Amino acid sequence: MPVHGPSLLLSSVSARSAAGTGIRSVSFGVSGGSVHGILGENLSGASEVLAVISGFLPVADGTLTIGGIPRRFGSSAEAAAAGVRVIRGEPAVVPHSSVAENIYLGHETSAGGFVRFGRMNANTADLLTRFGLGGAVDPAGRAGDLGRAERWIVEFCRCLIAERSVVLLDEPFTGLDAPGLALVAGGIRRLSAEGVTVVIASHRLDLLRQVASGVTVLSRGAAVETVALTANTPSTEQLVRHMTANITVTPRPQHEELESGPVVFELASWTAQHPVDTERSVVQDVSLTARRGEIVGLAGLEGSGISELALSLFGRTFSSRVSGTMLVDGRPLDAATPQESVAGGVGLSTAANIKYDLNLIGGIPSRISSGMLARLARLGLVDRDRDYRTTDAPAFGLGGISALVGRRGAAGLAAGSAGAGAARGAGAARSTGAGDLADGAGWPAGARRHLDALRTWLDLPLGQRPVVVVLDHPTAALDAARVAVVRDLIVELAAGGTAVLLASDDLDELLMLTSRVYTLAGGRATAELLTRDATPAGLLAKMMG
């Protein structure tokens, strides 16, 4: 087990990713065995800070010190060798292996060339007891049967077995119920008690107050303040002001007020379940409206459910388990496929390659798109225990869904590369002299899909355009010039009468483009705001729940 871990110190550290995001002159320190929070909105640079410490993003300037030793990691492997572990997103387990085998993965105890399973199980039982799961989890039991919070405990146990001195957690509280949150928070405190330095990037200020002794607040890549954190201080209002300190809202373009226009899209009590963890709702009881030609924001931070909401509106792209009512142009629409959504007047553009976790290949979790489910199914069911060869793997994910923008009322759709190629051709025909940038040359693949979709819709006659389009983070990771191109196309599409639902975490974008914003946190709507009356701090406070 590790002794009290080394201190962590960032001194005027700057770094920049290939996507153009980064941090500049960030400084803070964490003493060994402490828990420290990193707090900021989604473009703050919190993830980049973790990437620098874990060796995924090189330091461009400044000094990173771990245990008194200056470090310039050239890779994540070098950071791991120095005792750093980063855990992002879903906690990972090998489902058909035991809990003990998962915890000791890569560090198995052996004698004479044979794994000593008895000792591993006994040590695992001791570890689980220290993390609050003694007697509740069988060390020899199947790891795939563990709940999400219990899988986090497996990850924490791995950190102790591997003698990690610095553990970085990126949004560890997402998707957990109250008992799960308590278990994970207790696990973080146990890591600290074992001498591990823990750094948590999270928007859950309420939970950071429970586990962290200090917090660094970031705003657009810069550290605004590092302060001690208690149950009541600093106030939430003060921290939110710091989080928005470096956000400058671009003046909104003049546009006609739409408050009296006809409502063309309406949701009532919309709920969507997770496609695999079907007991978990990722969108819960959301109701909203959009008027003709209106741009309506869907605003939320990591884990808020805005992307899941956006995808669930289009042929149940995110999950087949949805409920509630959707009205398009006053008519009910219950679309089970993307084709039915397009025919009903709904369009979607997303850069995400949405795929689902299924234990398909030798029991190893595999990622497949919903578009492949029919090809993999037999009698409507996917056999999770069947071995699928790589030749059966999906050819493309739902990132290609932006090609599914056929004419309103059309029965057929162009999908995959052929549809995208047609869209690119249409987009090229619309170019108005902005050169290669407007033609899409050099754009990231995901952003190019948004560009193609918007241009394809705009090339349709007004009467054949969708009634409403859903855009999922259309300007994410783009430079300022490309952001301007995409935003201009969104405004042009709305000016033609199409309602736009804009899922975004960019405060400036939401306040500049939209007339109203619905904020979500934890899958639930927390507020409806008129953006003419909103401020970055006020909007962010609602996004934080």
How do you describe this structure in short?
This protein is of the alpha/beta class.
Number of helices: 17
Approximately how much helix is present in the residues? 25-40%
DSSP, total strands: 24
Distance N terminus to C terminus? 38 Å
- Please report which band the strand proportion falls in: under 5%, 5-15%, 15-25%, 25-35%, 35-45% or over 45%: 25-35%
Biggest pleated-sheet summary: 6 strands, mixed
Mean pLDDT: 82
Lateral arrangement of strands in the main beta sheet: 6-9-10-3-11-12
Runs in which pLDDT lies below 50 for 5 or more consecutive residues are 1-6, 354-435
CATH superfamily of the largest domain: P-loop containing nucleotide triphosphate hydrolases
Domain ABC transporter: 8-245
Organism: Subtercola boreus
Protein name: ABC transporter domain-containing protein
GO molecular function: ATP binding; ATP hydrolysis activity
